[in-house]
Sequence to fold (164 residues):
Amino acid sequence: MSCSIARTLELVGDWWTFLIVREAFFGSRKFGEFEKALGIAPNVLTQRLGKLVEGGILVVEATSASGKALSYRLSAKGRDLFPVLVAMLQWGDKHASAPKGPPVRIVARRTGEEIAPMVLRSANGEVLDVSEVMPVAGPGAGQAVRQRMAEIAEMAEVRRAGKG
Fold:
């Protein structure tokens, strides 16, 4: 599928997979650390770790001479998921919060200050609302996507003109 969201969800779109990525950001490296932090069944963890390694999100390294002890760390591709994780965390804190408030805060390591809410920004840094952006066909768009983007643009124009 040519949709970037669909391809991303193929890699990290299930409950356990994204929680494993979260734990990797929190510092888990060894199989037992992931297993303990998540309470995940070993067979499920094995399968999800394999998928994350295959997808290039985690890198596996042998940590013993025999090669039996393994360590998992985020690749550059995996570290690029951090803003997605933070956006999901902030959305959850706002719209699906725990009764006593956020269970985890993300702070700047150097200052201890909580990070600012994630926002959409234009290339020049201007904060944008969802109503101020729209999808357009990109260089990898096939005919079906180009047609869909044209339909979206047409619907937006009709709405702006007050006809819909």
Remarks:
- The chain has a mean pLDDT of 93.
- The CA atoms of residues 155 and 164 lie 8 Å apart.
